[in-house]
Amino acid sequence: MAFISLFTTGGTLDKQYNEYEGQLGFSKTSIHGIIKNSRITLDINIEELMLVDSLDMSCLERERIVKACVICKTDKIVITHGTDTMVETAREIAQKKINKTIILTGAMIPYSIKKSDAIFNISSALSFCQVLDNGVYIVMNGRYFLWNNVKKNKEFGVFESL
């Protein structure tokens, strides 16, 4: 059994530029490239739950994320998620009082674009996941936050304490 389970749900981290349409969209998760390029050697089980923008995430999709956390055999979970509604999903997970360390993370800039923060945020989440007590956290910008003490500062493109 893997030491850490990593669930992908999409968000900016997984978006790729479609040069024909001139838009960002989804075709596949970027997590395998992130893990490989970061030279991460942890025992990780990766499961793609969905590829959606968090602003378009439905209640059913959030329920799917929560259910994946509940039935997961490992007690350490990292979830990639869009930053706009990351706190909302963290709240849904926390309400279930799951006795595991669960971290949500993402990126402000897609992994497929130069100067992305995706590698740093994934690496930080995997590191924090190994040392934090059970609970639900947001990990962004090299910091961790309890799910109920964090907000996205859209002006500066960072997460900060309330």
Q: What would your notes on this structure say?
A:
It is a single chain. This protein is α/β, with parallel strands linked by helices and 162 residues long. The chain has a single domain (4-160), classed as L-asparaginase, N-terminal domain (Rossmann fold), CATH 3.40.50.1170. The chain is 28% helix and 30% strand. It contains four helices and ten strands. The protein has helices at 31-38, 59-71, 86-95, 118-131, and strands spanning 4-10, 16-18, 23-25, 44-52, 76-80, 101-105, 135-140, 143-146, 151-153, 158-160. The strands form three sheets. The chain has a six-stranded mixed sheet, with helices on both faces. Helix 1 (31-38) crosses helix 4. The longest helix has 14 residues, at 118-131. The protein is globular. The model has no long low-confidence stretch (mean pLDDT 92).
Topology of helices and strands:
Elements: E1 4-10, E2 16-18, E3 23-25, H1 31-38, E4 44-52, H2 59-71, E5 76-80, H3 86-95, E6 101-105, H4 118-131, E7 135-140, E8 143-146, E9 151-153, E10 158-160
Parallel strand pairs: 1-4, 1-5, 5-6, 6-7
Antiparallel strand pairs: 2-3, 7-8, 9-10
Helix pairs in contact: 1-4
